[in-house]
Amino acid sequence: MIPVRGFEGRTVAVFGLARTGLAAARALVAGGAQVALWDERPEGRAAAEAEGLPLVDLSTADWSQFAALMLSPGVPLTHPEPHWTVTKAQETGVEIVGDMELFARTVNAAPEHKRPKIVAITGTNGKSTTTALIGHICASAGRDTRVGGNIGVGVLGLEDMHGGAVYVLEMSSYQLDLTSSLKPDVAILLNVSPDHLERHGGMEGYVAAKRRILLNQGKGDTAVIGVDDPWGQRICTEITAANRRTIVPISASKAMGRGVYALQGLLYDATGERAVEVADLLRARSLPGRHNWQNAAAAYSAARGLGISAEDAAEGLMSFPGLAHRMETVGQLGRVRFVNDSKATNTDAARQAMSSYPKFYWIAGGQPKTGGIDALADLFPKIETAYLIGEASEAFEETLKGKAPTVACGTMEVAVAKAYADAAAKGQDAVVLLSPACASFDQFADFEARGEAFRAAVQALTAPAAKGARA
After folding, report:
1. Among the options 83, 196, 369, 418, which is catalytic?
2. How many CB atoms lie within 10 A of CB 94?
3. How large is the C-alpha radius of gyration of the chain?
């Protein structure tokens, strides 16, 4: 863990006791702070009690005793309305921070020779794959690499820092809203499209949150910006005018006079005097499709920004094993392949997987995003049948009426079983694709739990077949 500095002998309130909140509480205590923990969920409070961490009902507490409120990123800060803990903190002048801000302050307080390198990644889509990919490249190049943040381990739960370490951190817009001091050596903004608008008060608020990843960069730092969408183009133009850091535009759709780009699967580095082909991404089995080419361009650019050679960066792209819950094949039964794309929590992400197959049996639904699945209408002819789960079932069924067959399934287990039965009955090569285009919070703790439920349901189908084959 990374002991948090700056709150020694003072009390920090911590609200939200899932992975992030508990990791922050441990790190604060390790750094010499006192903590007052609370969660409205009994299971959250039980988790804190099991570790011997002190619980304080923040609804009745004396807030004048708190130096700060450590707010878990899932708790609303401003929209659709501030959480009651936010209101109490504001009324009493208590500073509100997130775990990334606690990490940033701890780094900034360290002597310069002990500060690690930081790569921070955000974007509407692709950030988890890009984070894992950069971590893989850095580790393969011999760097002492720690990967976490919004993926895997919370940042404060990672191994303590030293001057030779590299922290590769995925950052959500929620985390960025609670971060003001982070100064990444490499900041990556992959892309921006409408998402989480209810939490940011609209598109401008969402874009502003994403831009915060660039907030404190200066001379010697590297900003990697995706320019395949209008918001990314605008941000790249604006920070280029500021001319303070090294800026690397990236694209997966066009050649550029300056930057890193992929065309027809070939990755080019045009940051020097001329464009040089650096990798054939068609040979990278875990990076299929244009969306992954953008991820590869970003990861390559980040590696180069850290001083990793072009050859080592390209080699890391080729050897990347892939990311769980992102177009991950989790089983095969006869001629039916099961693909876990639970990470697709919005239509843009789902489009990437749906575009990769000529036909598929689609498991979709969950907690719907604004606009539903209307944006995927051009892909509806690819759907053999849609198996609908969660809160979005009725709305998705209405959208798909007359465009694709639907089956209301309710649960993941039912959806997997029915999709397999229909796919197997055809007697042809088939793909059962979980790509929900929805958040997971109606039925699952997070998209990882949803993906694991899919994996378990597939294993329940394939285990009897495997046992029979051995008999």
Report:
1. 196
2. 20
3. 23
